[in-house]
Amino acid sequence: MKNVAPIILFVYKRLQQTQQTVEHLKLNKLAAESDLFIFSEYPKTAALTNEVKKVRDYIKTIEGFKSITIVERPIFFGLAKSVIAGITSVFEKHDRVIVLEDDIVTSPSFLEFMNEGLEKYEFDNRIYSLTGYCYPPALLKIYKEYDKDVFLLPRAASWGWGTWKNRWLKADWAVKDFDEFYKNRELQKKYDLTGGDKSRMLIRQMKGEIDSWAIRWDYTHFKNNAFCVYPVKSLVNNIGLDSGTHTKNLLSHTTEIENKKPKFPEDINVDEKIIKEYKKHYKKGGNVFKVKQIISRFLGK
């Protein structure tokens, strides 16, 4: 492949999950052709120093990639600032990236899928990102007559995903139009058509109640009428829902990893049946309890 995207990995204090994430990633055919950038968070409290040190000692031993660049934060950044700053810095020299956190295990076909998608949709301005993740059937059931391996959703993903520099630079991390959004109930209703939790999360973010880069990245999709490409069968799984800083007391929704690489269709358009099924699970009532739990982690609460 001519233009293999660099991989960005964010790590903190979970040694076992980090090791699993890296070992699965190394099984990918394109791992040896990929530049790996690792951003290591500084301990938030002195009590975490030893755990962070163990992770930092481990990442210095990693092999199997074209190159490895390690950035050890000298102060505590927090999730949102770390992700935004890390990705932005890699985009100074690259035009596309693949992003993972330290609790995402991948299929051996994940990197091929992501790189092919980043190549295929580079000039499709409807698409702002793609992901290797797919919701488990309990949260999104793809109807059996659907004959493609991928589909579009008007919602960004944060579990094993990728994007391009020109889309990333569209993000307004300060959300300068927030006052207008906050006063405009109709605009909030429109945003919530793609997830009944989203306006609430954006408002909480801007009030300083949560620390989420992902809700602002999703809002970037919304403002640009953009989509994320999802595989019908997931190529990633989250192994940290029971131990992450942002996932305590959340219900774990896991899905089996697909080893076979999905095929991209010649053309892709929004499938209204899938959108309808998706919306059923992201409106008030019904499955709102379990949906709120996975989405809180999915959007980096």
Helix content: 25-40%
Number of domains: 1
Let me know the average pLDDT: 89
First-to-last CA distance = 36 Å
Instruction: Detail the poorly predicted runs.
Output: 243-254, 284-301
Shape: globular
Structure write-up:
By secondary structure, the chain is of the alpha/beta class. Helix content is 34%, strand content 16%.
Topology:
Elements: E1 7-11, H1 15-26, E2 35-40, H2 49-59, E3 67-72, H3 79-90, E4 96-101, E5 104-106, H4 110-120, E6 127-131, E7 150-153, E8 161-164, H5 165-168, H6 178-183, H7 185-192, H8 198-206, H9 214-223, E9 227-231, E10 236-238, H10 272-280, H11 288-298
Parallel strand pairs: 1-2, 1-4, 2-3, 6-9
Antiparallel strand pairs: 4-8, 5-10, 6-8, 7-9
What's this entry about, in short?
This protein is 34% helix and 16% strand. The protein is of the alpha/beta class and 301 residues long.
Structural descriptors:
301 residues, Spore Coat Polysaccharide Biosynthesis Protein SpsA, Chain A, eight-stranded mixed beta sheet, 10 strands
